[in-house]
Amino acid sequence: LQRLLPPRVSARRGSWLRRERKATTAGLLWPANSLLPATPPRAGHFEELEAAEELLASLPALRKSPSAYRRKIRDLVPAKLRLHERAPEEAEELAERAALVCSFLGYAYLRAGAELSELPPSLAAPWAEASAFLDRAVSLDYVSTVLSNCTVVHGADDDEPAVRVDATFTGSDDERHFYAIHARVETAAAPAVRAIVRELDAVEAATSA
Q1: What ranges make up the beta strands (E) of the chain?
Q2: What's the rounded mean pLDDT across residues 44-57?
Q3: pTM of the entire structure?
């Protein structure tokens, strides 16, 4: 747990949960939102993902025609992310966004009609590159469905925060609610996170005195 709290983090490149980062990116324990970032990786911000982002935005409708959807995925030109050529913050934001986009499109591809077990290079290549950079498995995970996919909007102190959900498979309110409730749990944990931070700071101060 202590490794998640800035500045008590290692500088290991590509380890998303263990790097000290600005509050505009995801992955550390932020006292206001627990594990949720202040701002998730931005949709539509990276030219390399533009074509895939367009498919993601239309995913609920595209899934109704499985063969056409799979054809569109196969026709994508694999995105070349070149993560190690970028500044660290930009690289990690792009990697997180690529992981989210590819995981939603990839799982939809594998389950469109008859289930498949292999992805085309158009998704496999950028997803593998992003996952290797982030030191995470190639998988649809909690980070992509919740932490990078939800934006919490705080209102008055006594109001329940609103949650905006970016990507869904179905476009349904039920799916959005499923992701949003997890984001609210993260936010509700914020007082506990602040208490942990205070205790760790106290222990560190006592041991270094």
Answers
A1: 150-153, 162-165
A2: 95
A3: 0.80
Percent of the chain with pLDDT over 90: 54
Q: What is the 3-state secondary structure (H, E, C) of 102-155?
A: HHHHHHHHHCCCCCCCCCCHHHHHHHHHHHHHHCCCCCCCHHHHHHCCEEEECC
How far, in Å, CA of 105 to CA of 109, rounded?
Answer: 6
> Which of these, 180, 144, 176, 174, lies nearest to 160 by C-alpha position?
180
Residue 1: how many other CB atoms lie within 10 Å = 9
**For residues 75-102, average pLDDT:** 93
Distance separating alpha carbons of residues 70 and 108, to the nearest angstrom: 9
The span from the CA of 184 to the CA of 161, in Å, is 7
Contacts of 104-110 with CB under 8 Å at 24 or more apart are 104/56, 104/59, 104/140, 104/144, 104/167, 104/169, 105/52, 105/55, 105/56, 105/59, 105/73, 106/140, 107/140, 107/169, 108/59, 108/62, 108/63, 108/69, 108/169, 109/69, 109/70, 109/73
pLDDT at 81 over 90: yes
Contact assessment for residue 151 and residue 104, using Cβ atoms and an 8 Å cutoff? no
pLDDT at position 32 is 59
Peptide bond into 7 cis (omega under 30): yes
The b-or-e profile of 106-138 (16+ CB within 10 A means b, else e) is: bbbbeebeeeeeebbebbebbbebbbebbebeb
Partners of 165 in beta bridges: 150
